[in-house]
Amino acid sequence: MTTADGCSVELYTLLPPAGEAEIVHAAVPAGAAVLDLGCGTGRVAHGLMALGHPVTAVDDSPEMLAHVRAERVCSRIEDLRLDRRFDAVLLASHLINAPDSAPVLAAVARHLAPGGRAIVEWHPPAWFDTVEDGAGGVLGEVGIRLSGIARDADLLEATVRYTAHGRSWAQSFTARRLDQPQLEALLAGAGLVFDRFLTPTATWFSASSD
C-alpha cells in the first residue's frame, strides 16, 4: 500500500527511529507539547511520547495514521488549521527542501505558540554539492541507496531505493538547495527566525517566531 506521494506504508513500519526524538527533546522544554507534521507511521512521535511529550500527529494518509498511537489529525500540512498552538512544531523528512515549501512553513508558523520552537530537518548546501549515486546506508534492517541523481540549477532529482526482507521499494523526489541566506529569507517569509543548529552535522535547526 502506498500513499498519494508514493511512500510505502509497509516500508515506513520497518524504519526505526534514528535519534530524531532525542534531538527534539534536547531543544525544547520538558513536557513541551509537540505538533508532528508529516508524522508517517509515528516513529518519531512515539519516541517523543516516551520522553514525556504530548504529541499531535498530522499526516494526509489514513493508512499511515492507523499505526500512530498519538492524537491523530488527517490533513495535508498546507491545509492544517487547528484552533490551538504548540510549544514545538516538528518538520522532519527534509520537507523544507521541497521546491515550494512556503505553504508548509506557513502552517508551521500559524501553529507555533509565542516563545515556542520549530524544529526542522533539512539538507544543508554541502549535501547537494557532494552527494553522488550510491550514497546511502542501513537504518535498522532497511538498506537505503540513492540513484539517478540529476542537478538543474538549485534543484536535485533522485530516486531513493529501499531494500529489506528480500523486497525493494523506490521513491523519487526533488529537493531544492538552500544556502544560509536563502534559508533565513524563506523562514522570514513565514514570520520565523533562524535560531541555531541542533546537531554537529547541521542537518537539524530550530527557529522561532519573529
What number of structural domains do the residues give?
A: 2
Tell me the CATH superfamily of the largest domain: Vaccinia Virus protein VP39
Instruction: Examine the coordinates and then state which fold CATH places here, giving the name of the CATH topology of the largest domain.
Output: Rossmann fold
Beta fraction of the residues? Answer: 35-45%
> How many helical elements?
7
Describe the biggest sheet? 7 strands, mixed
Q: Tell me the span between the first and last alpha carbons.
A: 41 Å
Shape: globular
CATH top level of the largest domain is Alpha Beta
Q: How many E strands?
A: 11
Could you state the order of secondary-structure elements as H and E?
HHEHEHEEHEHEEEEHEE
**Compute the gyration radius: what is it?**
16 Å
Q: Report the CATH architecture of the largest domain.
A: 3-Layer(aba) Sandwich
Strand pairing plus helix content: what structural class?
alpha/beta
Give the % helix. Answer: 10-25%
Average pLDDT: 94
Oligomer: single chain
Low-confidence stretches: none
**Strand order across the biggest sheet?**
3-2-1-4-5-11-10
